[in-house]
Design a protein that fits this description.
The protein is 52% helix and 9% strand. The protein has 507 residues and is α+β, with helices and mostly antiparallel strands. Strand 9 and strand 10 form a beta hairpin. The N terminus is likely disordered. Belongs to the cytochrome P450 family.
């Protein structure tokens, strides 16, 4: 018993001493102010009261737009205003673009080849270039191979909604959009569709992967305990991402057989190469520009990242936009009048129509302002820098709270109100790459700007516009009585905690 008391006393003495030293060291290094951390757990209780982007915004109102919080053993600097976001994402962007993988992503070695996690070196640049040049650039998306696929995805979504409307069944908006975009992205990467069973399996695995990706995890806050995987996050992520890997492996194996057949004259060679063809070409050469050895692990990790990020981003934005419009019937009416006036008898919205639909663009911008798909952008300081007189030390996590930036009262009058009209006079200034003053940066900015921006902007406009042009929308009676649940869940993206259901009737 005496030995136990001595050990506990020593532990407490060491903990208190480290705690005091930590506070003094923070002051000596001139780090940004922040809430006083508790021993061992730091500010986890402050942040755990609600979702992290909301908790951090609340704390920033007390401690300033650049603040320090300690999440377990992690030192985190949080930028919560347009000016501090500009410092992180523009002024010091070359020094603040590192990434530490979430512990869950270590499963199956996923983080080792992830374009979202790799440090910003030649390997990372090469993988981003592959994705941009061969799938996600405007030139590719508007080209003769992908443009019909984008159009087909819009028609697929309309078909799904029409089938439910015909039997007066509620439409789960995000689910329908996710399924349509999932099929689009699969065809874009592999030039092949999914049968019904594979589509259901992939959709379930994809949505679960997204939920687990950035969920708060003890292993991230206390790396010493990571091997125990106390919340089972790494095991769960491994299980669901393995399903996506298996389906991608099937495509790789099938394509390699086709290529061998084409080389032997047994089957025709492909005329237009898709992203899988491009990566297999690199694999056969062994290297790409001496930077990346493209093997099966690299191919399936890269394709999984691109697939999960683009599919969830688009469907989530459509769901949030529809939820806001159903709560603001005047905005929905204005948008539908614009669609009727501009499109006339034309059934669906296409990319070429977007410039003639300013209110549609304003609605989507306002949706992304209030509901940024990725509310917290995490980077890591690769060297110590100074921001606004404060030190941001090497190795610390640097979070840009886009949710707080987009609700900054100094930049946005009545920041919590859904008011698309605020964007009508600033459509050119506030493009989807963000404003020059960083009040609106829905796809982040700087070197790690979202890879799928071009695809997302095309598909969100075309899909949302077509849904509102083709159908009249109302809420189920129970939702009318209780109101739409606008609460959030946070994973890889910020989704509605309660999936939106609405009734569609042909317009």
């Amino acid at each position: 018993m005496g030995f136990f008391l001595v050990c506990m006393s020593s532990f407490l003495l060491i903990s208190v001493s480290l705690y005091v030293f930590q506070l003094l060291d923070d002051r000596r290094r001139r780090m940004p102010p922040g809430p006083i951390p508790l021993p061992i757990i730091g500010n986890l209780l402050d942040v755990a009261r609600e979702l992290p982007h909301r908790s951090l915004a609340r704390l920033a109102r007390c401690h300033g737009p650049l603040m320090t919080v300690r999440l377990g053993t992690l030192v985190t600097i949080v930028a919560s205003s347009p000016s501090t976001a500009r410092e992180v994402l523009q002024t010091h962007n070359c020094s603040l673009t590192g990434r530490s993988p979430p512990d869950a992503w270590l499963a199956l070695g996923h983080a080792a080849n992830s374009v979202f996690i790799l440090p910003p070196g030649q390997r990372w640049r090469t993988l981003r270039r592959i994705g941009t040049e061969h799938l996600l650039s405007a030139r590719q998306l508007d080209g003769k191979r992908l443009r019909p696929l984008l159009r087909g995805a819009v028609l697929d979504l309309v078909r799904r909604v029409s089938e439910l409307a015909a039997v007066a069944a509620p439409v789960e908006v995000g689910h329908a959009a996710f399924a349509a975009v999932m099929d689009l992205q699969w065809r874009a990467m592999f030039s092949a569709g999914l049968d019904g069973a594979a589509a259901r399996v992939l959709q379930e695995a994809s949505r679960e992967s997204v939920k687990l990706s950035l969920k708060p995890n003890v292993s991230d806050f206390f790396p010493a305990f990571a091997t125990a995987d106390l919340q089972g996050m790494r095991r769960r992520f491994a299980r669901v991402v393995a399903v996506v890997y298996r389906l991608i492996d099937e495509q790789i194996d099938r394509r390699m057989l086709d290529r061998r057949g084409a080389a032997g004259g047994c089957s025709p060679a492909r005329v237009e190469k898709d992203l899988l063809d491009v990566m297999l070409d690199m694999s056969e050469r062994g290297k790409d520009d001496g930077a990346v050895t493209v093997n099966r692990d690299v191919i399936r990790t890269f394709l999984t990242d691109i697939f999960l990020a683009t599919v969830d981003t688009i469907s989530t934005t459509i769901e949030w936009a529809m939820a806001e419009l159903l709560q603001h019937p005047d905005s929905m009416r204005k948008l539908q009048e614009e669609l009727r006036r501009v499109l006339g008898s034309k059934a669906d919205v296409e990319h070429s129509d977007i410039d003639r639909l300013p209110y549609l663009r304003a609605v989507i911008m306002e949706t992304l302002r209030l509901h940024p798909v990725v509310p917290l952008v995490p980077n890591e300081a690769e060297e110590t820098v100074e921001i606004m007189g404060h030190a941001v030390p090497k190795g610390c996590t640097v979070l840009v709270n886009l949710w707080a930036v987009h609700r900054d009262a100094g930049a946005w009058p009545e920041p919590d109100r859904f008011t698309p009209e605020r964007f009508l006079l600033r459509l050119q200034e506030a493009g989807f790459l963000g404003t020059t003053e960083f009040q609106f940066i829905p796809f982040s900015a700087g070197r790690r700007v979202c890879l799928g921006l071009q695809l997302a902007t095309r598909m969100v406009h075309a899909m949302l516009g077509s849904l509102l042009h083709r159908f009249e929308w109302t809420l189920p009676q129970e939702v009318k009585e209780n109101g739409i649940d606008m609460s959030e869940n946070l994973g890889l993206t910020m989704v509605m905690a309660t999936p939106l259901q609405a009734i569609a009737n042909s317009a």
